[in-house]
Amino acid sequence: MTTLSVEGMSCEHCEQTVEEALEAVSGVTDASADHEDERASVEGDADVAALVEAVEQAGYSAQT
């Protein structure tokens, strides 16, 4: 599992947007985001840089 710190999420819609962006990355089997904890968890063997890029393209800031 990979955990990312995600800044900019403020609601459940934001969580859904981040989850969809992460699930679109090759190698991801499951993703969940929590705006209150400002974290996203990703299952699978996706490249971490690709995960960060996907979150940033969705309009949020991410780091490992």
Secondary-structure blueprint:
Layout: E1 2-7, H1 12-23, E2 28-34, E3 39-44, H2 48-57, E4 61-63
Outline:
This protein has 64 residues and is an alpha+beta fold.
Give the helices and strands as they follow along the chain.
EHEEHE
**CATH-defined topology:** Alpha-Beta Plaits
Task: Give the neighbour order of strands across the main sheet.
Answer: 2-3-1-4
N-to-C span:
12 Å
Q: Provide the gyration radius in Å.
A: 10 Å
Q: What structural class results from the helix and strand content?
A: alpha+beta
Per DSSP E runs of 2 or more residues, the count of β-strands stands at 4
- Tell me, briefly, the overall form: globular
Which regions contain 5 or more consecutive residues with pLDDT less than 50? Answer: none
For the sheet with most strands, the description reads: 4 strands, antiparallel
Total domain count: 1
Q: How many individual helices? A: 2
| Percentage of residues in DSSP E strands | 25-35%
In percent, how helical is the residue content? Answer: 25-40%
Q: Which second-level CATH architecture applies?
A: 2-Layer Sandwich
Average pLDDT level: 97
InterPro entries: HMA_dom, HMA_dom_sf
Organism: Halomicrobium mukohataei (strain ATCC 700874 / DSM 12286 / JCM 9738 / NCIMB 13541) (Haloarcula mukohataei)
Domain HMA: 1-63
GO molecular function: metal ion binding
